TrEMBL record:
Transmembrane segments: none annotated. It catalyses: 5,6-dimethylbenzimidazole + nicotinate beta-D-ribonucleotide = alpha-ribazole 5'-phosphate + nicotinate + H(+). It comes from the Bacteria. The lineage of its organism: Bacteria, Bacillati, Actinomycetota, Actinomycetes, Streptosporangiales. GO terms for biological process: cobalamin biosynthetic process. InterPro entries: Nict_dMeBzImd_PRibTrfase, Nict_dMeBzImd_PRibTrfase_bact, Nict_dMeBzImd_PRibTrfase_N, Nict_dMeBzImd_PRibTrfase_sf. Belongs to the CobT family. Pathway: Nucleoside biosynthesis; alpha-ribazole biosynthesis; alpha-ribazole from 5,6-dimethylbenzimidazole: step 1/2. Signal peptide: none annotated. HAMAP family: CobT (MF_00230). CDD domains: DMB-PRT_CobT. The active site is at E327. Catalyzes the synthesis of alpha-ribazole-5'-phosphate from nicotinate mononucleotide (NAMN) and 5,6-dimethylbenzimidazole (DMB). This is Nicotinate-nucleotide--dimethylbenzimidazole phosphoribosyltransferase.
Length: 361
């Protein structure tokens, strides 16, 4: 079996008996039932995913930022030059990006993975050189990647997850860097959810109305060129999912999909960042539907397609602060919330143990 097949085969859905135990325990804790709102669902879901209640503390956390470039950049879908991808990789490695600041704040490690930037990078501490290609081909005129490239990038993500977990990570956080990657994200969301290009496509790093119209048209052409016009039907099965990922995804999307699968296979929770992670998670879910049980949506990005992706996955975002940065920043912000949700299950007394009287009616 390939690492991808092995990983997919190792992914189990949440354990229903553990979910029930966790829910019952949650109800005995010294607080009104439901008073912790969405955090109660997080704690119960993570217990089910881990196969034990309470779930292990999701700490320490490891952020992996997967970087890649995009042939569709040539279509004028972003105001930023392509070399910013490589330059930001340097910034992450020097500790100067927002992701570094947020990671320091929440105590997460940062690993940067070159899965497909257009330039050659020198060895540097914290950099994994795993280049599959020097960027993708232009998805507006045909497949962005070959199937072999998509699989190789999936393997990069799986191996990165494995290595971080072996080093002690108990929570994975997805990060991305790739100028023009919100175009590929929108195309993936259209293909996997049936959302229209008008609805799924947003302003990314910040574009004017004329550029937005061009970007929508590029997404429409990408779907047509790859035989993926939006329908209300999700492409069925792993083979179709892989085909969609290769056709309109990016190398970092494929690696993030592998990273999510790798975490789920080890029963380590994965906090998803923004629209790039959301669209990559759609591909991961096409390859292994149970993967969703191991994911927490860290936040909802301002990019409109992200809502469609999360709705399709059935995930509720924890934070909604109109962020649209990527890098893993929204996932990092959510990490203390996820830890707090799980810690309640470990630390909070039950009504019985604390001698607190339960409500009467
Ligand atoms: O995470 C998000 O939801 C998000 C939304 C908008 C932009 N980004 C980041 O901005 C870059 C892509 O934006 P663009 O406009 O070049 O497609 C890429 O590096 C992403 O990490 C990320
Ligand atoms: C400066 C800059 C930083 C980023 N981080 C993630 N995407 C980005 C895009 C730009 C342009």
């Amino acid at each position: 079996m390939s690492p991808l097949e092995e990983t997919v085969a190792a992914i189990s859905p949440a354990d229903p008996a553990v979910l029930a135990d966790a829910r019952a325990h949650q109800e005995r804790l010294t607080k009104p039932r439901g008073a912790l709102g969405v955090l109660e669902d997080v704690a119960v879901r993570l217990a089910g995913a881990a196969g034990r209640s309470p779930a292990p503390m999701p700490s320490p956390a490891a952020l992996a930022i997967f970087a890649g470039d995009h042939g569709v950049h040539a279509q004028g879908v972003t105001p930023w030059p392509q070399e910013v991808t490589t330059q930001m990789v340097g910034n992450f490695l020097a500790g100067g990006a927002v992701a570094n600041a947020f990671a320091a704040q929440v105590g997460a490690s940062v690993t940067v993975v070159d899965v497909g930037v257009a330039a050659d990078l020198d060895d540097a501490p914290g950099l994994l050189r795993r280049k599959v290609a020097y960027g993708t081909a232009d998805l507006a005129s045909g497949p962005a990647m070959t199937t072999a490239q998509a699989v190789a990038a999936l393997h990069v993500g799986i191996e990165t997850a494995r290595a971080l977990i072996e080093d002690g990570a108990r929570c994975l956080i997805t990060g991305d860097m790739g100028i023009a990657n919100t175009t590929a994200s929108a195309a993936l969301i259209c293909a996997f959810t049936g959302t229209s290009p008008e609805e799924a496509t947003g302003r990314g790093t910040g574009i004017d109305d004329e550029t937005l119209q061009r970007k929508i048209d590029v997404v429409r052409r990408a779907l047509a060129a790859n035989g993926l016009e939006p329908t209300s039907h999700e492409p069925a099965g792993a083979a179709a999912g892989l085909r969609v990922l290769a056709a309109v995804g990016g190398l970092e999307h494929a690696a993030i999909a592998g990273f999510i699968l790798g975490g789920a296979a080890a029963r380590v929770p994965v906090i998803l960042d923004g629209v790039i992670a959301g669209s990559a998670a759609l591909a991961a879910a096409a390859l292994a539907p149970a993967v969703v049980d191991h994911c927490v949506a860290g936040h909802r990005s301002a990019e409109p397609g992200h809502r469609a992706a999360l709705d399709h996955l059935g995930l509720r975002p924890l934070v909604d602060l109109e962020l649209r940065l990527g890098e893993g920043t929204g996932g990092l912000l959510a990490h203390p919330l996820v830890c707090s949700a799980v810690r309640v299950m470990h630390d909070v007394a039950t009504f019985d143990a604390a001698g607190v009287t339960e409500k009467e009616i």
